[in-house]
Amino acid sequence: MPATFPPAIFQSFAEKSDPANVAPRLQALRAQMSQAGVDGFLIPRADAHRGESVPPSEARLAYVTGFTGSAGVAVIGPERAALFIDSRYTLQAPAQTDTTLVDVIEIGQGTTLGTEIGNYVPANGVLAYDPWLHTPAEIRELTERLAGRVTLRPVANLVDAIWTDRPAPPNAPITLRSDNLTGKSSAGKLEDLATALQAEGADAVVLNLPESICWLLNIRGSDVPNAPFVLGYATVDKDRNVALYVDGAKLTPERLAAIRPLADLVHPVAEFPAALEALGGAGKRVLVDPATAPEAVAAALKAAGATLVEKRDPVLLPKSRKNEAELAGMREAHKLDGIALAKFLAWFAQSAPTGTLTEIAIVTALEAFRREEPTCLDASFDTISGAGPNGAIVHYRVTEKTNRTLAPGELMLVDSGAQYLSGTTDITRTMASGPATDEQRDRFTRVLKGMIAISMARFPKGTSGAQIDVLARQFLWQAGVTYNHGTGHGVGAALSVHEGPIGISSRYTLPLEPGMVLSNEPGYYKSGEYGIRIENLLAVRDSDVAPGFLEFETLTLVPIDRQLIDETLLLPPECAWLNTYHARVRTEISPHLTGEVKTWLEAATAPLTE
């Protein structure tokens, strides 16, 4: 097994923020606020396309506050500023910003942006926002909550006015995805969308989510890290006429020639405002998703005379129902990932007891094994590589500053994923680097029991992720503990690793349907000591046992650390599930391995005593 690896190419370990930059940038921004005659400014993490990953040119929240998490919003007032985050970032956010100037506030349990803004914007003041970065639903809610206290005003983005070294917008080429990978032509998808529009009484729809546009048109790109997205806007009418608006730099003759016949539908993004005016000017009924579309789009359509049909993006639900070609691609991606993870875990088992492994070395090794596969195109997110107490930080990102050496006997949590040509993966494994404590084995086994309970679940059609979430938590609850994140999220097919509109947590109330792919990832975190999470991806399928019922197919093919299991806590059906799972991993992955790695896999997947 290799002992050294080339530098990782997918993930940087550099510090992406410096709290020392916060003060001068707040000062410059407040000068812009004064010039604009406003008393506050909102800075969301999101860009106009609402993606989890944003290009460097859109990372305004990080530029001003230093916070690099995937969700958050800042309110900049004349005297004080606040950064609003969720429970994933209670440790990361204070470490990245200047807390003498920025208050870090966790949203939840009665604390909302609307309830807190009055502490930062003067009474009867004006709070400015960029209408391209907020949705109609967000602005409507804030307007209602702040009525009589603060007035909202759309403005050109004030951060852009002070961002003198702002990176250029992404300019990656657009590629076409073949029908054998998508399972359905873009013409067929457009026909289905036109039918959906007619059912909603809409003449057209405006799309801004890159995953919706990429899936609908069977295109891919690399405009953002970790997801094969093309950033742009699209309009589709009920007669299946479609137009795609992207950065003009993508529209060179050579690039357009490479995407024939789609090239005839592509226009410079500068023409998008005129397209909205034309839609509204025709007096059409235009479908706009109030939860994801930019407020600027809704306002432009209304100003031009359109009637808005406020409904969920009509591409989201069909996209989440993977067809057989997409599921075949996901299975292939997980097989390739299983081969890479077997090599990685064998290397880890040999190397961890030496006490020399660092968190960065572990990420670099994992990337190197994945990169042996030519169709591995990117990581699906920055790897969470948490040694010992860092494993208790749910969304920990290792940097050169925080890089920690794994001490023998500590737990190691690695949450990672990859984008293959065939599909998207996301997997978490918690590994022992030496003898574990009784408490660690108890907690690991309770997490495992919850993961198995979801994996084995059989449920009637119409059941939502919210209804089965408790299955994963029950065994931790019995011990008086829990975890403060969702049990699962939707996953795209060679698209976003976090995909709506379904998942497994209290907020996902849509029924699960065949073809949907979700993560299954209960966990336990003891602050300052260790973290545990076990994650597989699952596909929803019809049950052969009972008509009208659904169950899950496990896609992930990676061993679970048997050293951390307290077998006395497993019931016979749970033990049988794990043995069957490990036998399947061995059958599917072992033929692609040789030597010490193959020997390691045989031992790692040996059956437990039932």
Explain how this protein is built.
With 610 residues, this protein is of the alpha+beta class. 33% of the residues lie in helices and 19% in strands. The chain contains 19 helices and 27 strands. The strands form 8 sheets. Strands 4-3-2-1-5-6 form a 6-stranded mixed β-sheet. The protein has a 6-stranded mixed β-sheet with strand order 12-11-10-8-13-14, with helices on both faces. It has a 4-stranded antiparallel β-sheet with strand order 20-27-26-23. Helix 3 links the parallel strand 3 and strand 4. The model has no long low-confidence stretch (mean pLDDT 95).
Q: Summarize this, please?
A:
The protein has 610 residues and is an alpha+beta fold.
Tell me the layout of helices and strands.
Layout: H1 22-36, E1 40-44, H2 60-65, E2 73-76, E3 81-85, H3 92-96, E4 102-106, H4 113-116, E5 125-129, H5 136-145, E6 150-154, H6 158-162, E7 175-176, H7 179-182, H8 186-199, E8 204-207, H9 210-217, E9 219-220, E10 233-237, E11 242-246, H10 253-258, E12 266-268, H11 272-281, E13 285-288, H12 295-304, E14 307-310, H13 316-320, H14 324-351, H15 359-370, E15 376-379, E16 384-387, E17 411-416, E18 418-420, E19 427-432, H16 438-456, E20 458-460, H17 465-478, E21 488-490, E22 499-504, E23 517-520, E24 523-526, E25 530-533, E26 536-542, E27 549-554, H18 572-589, H19 595-604
Helix pairs in contact: 11-12, 14-15, 14-19, 16-17
